[in-house]
């Protein structure tokens, strides 16, 4: 007969509650500070709801009224170097961290007698301005209610994608742990998210990664029981959400979020654990949002909650709780509390008054935003990407004019050698990806020798692209390190689509155009290798539609060296598209000098001609040259090298088109997601008057390559397809 024994987790999972003795032992200044901060958040949120009811908040107004205890209890003791990020319902998280930061200037406390300093008043107004979409906001109105960031205070940014900010927080925690400063390993990060996010894959992936790497990251779950209108019990069998922690080996606490002191005590224990190198923690605070998902009405108005339930939670109000305890202990009386509340409400009213005015075209009492406070419309596309001032002193080279020693070598060796040279010279570069630290350089040899030379900066990751891509984004936002991610195949990028396109690509612009995102993403195209539909795509066409990403596609080993160096120098996310066909190809490589860049945004003319301009890139350059030779076409072959809208070499394209008046775009992949679709549209609009013929394209078929050798070859374009297109063009155009 089989035997069984109960298993228990290897880490502690506890429920923490306060006693009367805890309140007596608590520092009176701490309790007063928490009361002041909660009341500031409450009154601020009430002002936001009033403005929303008047139609002055463009977009959602996700109120956090009722949840102040969790935010303040956890953030009140955080240091300026500690980071936090949060969710779409993040006003209270953002304000709690900012108020804690400002309180540091007055000894870390706030006084109910004088609760609003000039700095706090300015902070409230600037936050409200951002929520209203105004120029004086932290991100000049671009972030609005759901994307609040104040990096100086350690507020890393709230996030409108449920769970989307959690991997970024892990990156910040990684940078804190490894930064070469006196605070390395002692600063922490707190990522706030709700009950809904605990079922999101990126959150669970990040829990695993943070635990494996012992990151100082607190996963703070605000369990308010409802994701819009769906109760937590409907979507998970374990509604004690902190139970996620033990499964990943993460020490976890469950507390009453309506008791700010309980939250604070749990956070003290969690902080001590993280600052001492113990790794991540989870705190689940049961809280309650008094209003609906968005706007000034209670959930009962929409039928998914009862008034009795709402009233029962209101009786546990965190502000009422702390007020009652302070009075019971004799630290405050009703007069001071009333005076405090009035002053805070006046401060919020003043912030509203500074940003609004009587609507001259409306009835008495109707307000409008002060017109002069809107951002200038010309700011709409400013700050999408770097101005490239970081490249001003760059040394650039072309293979044709390079004076250093050159030799024949493999493309893949150039990939490994330039990264080794850069990591030797720049201690901020961190390489990460699946198996990059094993197999003598990963699955293709691209990271050969890196682990042996720089073991602490070559990170083999779990198979969790969303988590480690977001972690790299968080590292890049921190600014002390420059991550290089390897995705084993380009198709795997879509697993991390949220982090690549919603987070990394948009961060600089979304937060006002000020922050940087110095990140390099390497991946390979594997058409022709028999790996099928999910390992074969060329991602250039989709990345070209995502403002914020720069795209490079080297076709020679020499160019790879210079393009990688340029990518690492740019303070933007750059995707480097490689191809398995190139890895084993031979070309000219530098012997010792790996310190040059290919000129930014400069294409290379691989063959001159007068009758036809062929635009191509990467692994299709040589087949194009071969096909041109096969057919005797008088074609000019342009290797684009830089593919994104902001980097492409329009000067070279312009000169060639005006010479040939004829265009052929050549690429290998499927036609639907092909880069040529975007490029042909742009050329059509720019050069319609110069074109004697319709723009021609060579690309793969409609469907992705499949496993069958015959069907795979039929699905993508190569030398025969290019030659066939050239013959047709010559015949139809009498070239």
Uncertain runs are: none
Determine the strand fraction and express it as a percent band. 5-15%
- For the largest sheet, list the strands in their spatial order: 1-8-9-5-4-2-3
What is the tally of beta strands? 24
CATH topology of the largest domain: Rossmann fold
Biggest pleated-sheet summary: 7 strands, parallel
The number of helices is 25
Cα end-to-end separation:
85 Å
Q: How would you sum up this structure, described in words?
A:
With 735 residues, the protein is an alpha/beta fold. It has 3 domains: 24-359, Rossmann fold (3-Layer(aba) Sandwich); 389-590, Rossmann fold (3-Layer(aba) Sandwich); 604-733, 3-Layer(aba) Sandwich (Rossmann fold), CATH 3.40.50.920. The protein contains 25 helices and 24 strands. The protein has a 7-stranded parallel β-sheet with strand order 1-8-9-5-4-2-3, with helices on both faces. It has a 6-stranded parallel β-sheet with strand order 14-13-15-16-18-17, sandwiched between helices. The chain has a 5-stranded mixed β-sheet with strand order 20-22-21-23-24, sandwiched between helices. The termini are far apart. The mean pLDDT is 95.
């Amino acid at each position: 007969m089989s035997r069984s024994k109960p298993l228990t987790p290897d880490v502690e999972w506890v429920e923490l509650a306060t006693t009367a003795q805890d309140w007596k032992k608590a520092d009176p200044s701490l309790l007063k500070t928490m009361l002041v901060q909660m009341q500031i958040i409450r009154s601020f949120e009430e002002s936001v709801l009033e403005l929303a009811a008047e139609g002055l908040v463009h977009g959602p107004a996700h109120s956090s009224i009722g949840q102040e205890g969790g935010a303040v209890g956890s953030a009140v003791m955080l240091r300026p170097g500690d980071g936090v990020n949060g969710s779409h319902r993040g006003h209270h998280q953002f304000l709690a961290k900012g108020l804690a930061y400002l309180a540091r200037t007055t000894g870390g406390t706030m006084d109910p007698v004088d609760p609003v300093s000039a700095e706090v008043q300015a902070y409230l107004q600037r936050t409200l301005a951002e929520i209203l979409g105004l120029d004086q906001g932290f991100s000049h109105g671009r972030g609005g209610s759901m994307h609040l960031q104040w990096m100086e205070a350690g507020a890393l940014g709230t996030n409108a994608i449920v769970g989307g900010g959690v991997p970024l927080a892990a990156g910040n925690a990684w940078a804190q742990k490894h930064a070469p400063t006196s605070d390395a390993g002692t600063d922490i990060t707190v990522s706030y998210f709700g009950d809904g996010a605990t079922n999101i894959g990126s959150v669970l992936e990040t829990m695993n990664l943070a635990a494996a790497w012992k990151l100082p990251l607190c996963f703070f779950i605000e369990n308010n029981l409802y994701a819009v209108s769906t109760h937590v019990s409907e979507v998970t069998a374990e509604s004690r959400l902190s139970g996620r922690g033990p499964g990943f080996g993460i020490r976890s606490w469950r507390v009453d979020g309506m008791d700010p002191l309980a939250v604070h005590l749990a956070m003290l224990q969690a902080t001590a654990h993280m600052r001492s190198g113990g790794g991540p923690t989870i705190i689940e605070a049961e809280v309650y949002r008094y209003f609906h998902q968005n706007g000034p009405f209670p959930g009962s108005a929409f039928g998914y909650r009862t008034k009795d339930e709402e009233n029962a939670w209101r009786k546990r109000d965190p502000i009422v709780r702390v007020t009652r305890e302070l009075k019971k202990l004799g630290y405050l009386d009703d007069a001071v509390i009333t005076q405090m509340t009035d002053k805070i409400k006046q401060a919020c009213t003043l912030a509203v008054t500074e940003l609004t005015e009587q609507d001259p075209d409306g009835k008495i009492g109707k307000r409008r935003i002060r017109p002069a406070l809107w951002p200038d419309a010309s700011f709409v596309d400013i700050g999408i990407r770097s101005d490239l001032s970081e490249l001003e002193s760059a040394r650039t080279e072309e293979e044709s004019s390079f004076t250093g020693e050159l030799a024949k070598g493999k493309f893949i060796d150039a990939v490994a050698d330039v990264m080794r040279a850069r990591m030797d010279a720049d201690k901020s570069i961190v390489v990460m990806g699946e198996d990059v630290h094993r197999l003598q350089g990963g699955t293709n040899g691209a990271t050969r020798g890196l682990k042996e030379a720089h073991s602490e900066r070559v990170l083999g990751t779990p198979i969790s692209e969303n988590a480690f891509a977001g972690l790299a984004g968080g590292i890049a936002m921190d600014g002390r390190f420059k991550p290089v991610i390897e995705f084993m195949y380009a198709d795997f990028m879509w697993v991390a689509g949220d982090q690549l396109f919603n987070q990394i690509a948009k961060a600089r612009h979304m937060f006002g155009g000020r922050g940087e995102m110095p990140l390099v993403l390497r991946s390979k195209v594997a058409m022709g290798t028999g790996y099928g539909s999910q390992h074969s795509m060329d991602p250039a066409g989709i990345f070209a539609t995502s403002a914020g990403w720069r795209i490079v596609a080297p076709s020679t080993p020499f160019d790879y060296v210079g393009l990688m160096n340029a990518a690492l120098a740019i303070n933007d996310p750059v995707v480097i598209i490689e191809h398995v066909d190139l890895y084993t190809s031979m070309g000219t490589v530098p012997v010792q000098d790996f310190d040059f860049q290919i000129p930014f945004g400069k294409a290379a003319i691989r063959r001159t001609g007068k009758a036809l301009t062929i635009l191509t890139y990467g692994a299709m350059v040589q087949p194009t040259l071969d096909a041109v030779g096969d057919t005797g076409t008088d074609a000019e072959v342009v290797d684009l090298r830089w593919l994104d809208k902001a980097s492409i070499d329009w000067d070279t394209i312009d000169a060639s088109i005006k010479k040939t008046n004829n265009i052929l775009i050549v690429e290998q992949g499927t036609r639907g997601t092909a880069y040529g679709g975007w490029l042909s549209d742009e050329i059509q609009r720019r050069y319609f008057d110069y074109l004697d013929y319709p723009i021609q394209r060579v690309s793969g078929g409609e469907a992705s390559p499949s496993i069958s050798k015959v069907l795979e070859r039929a699905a993508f374009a190569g030398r025969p397809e290019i030659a066939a297109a050239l013959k047709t063009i010559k015949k139809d155009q009498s070239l």
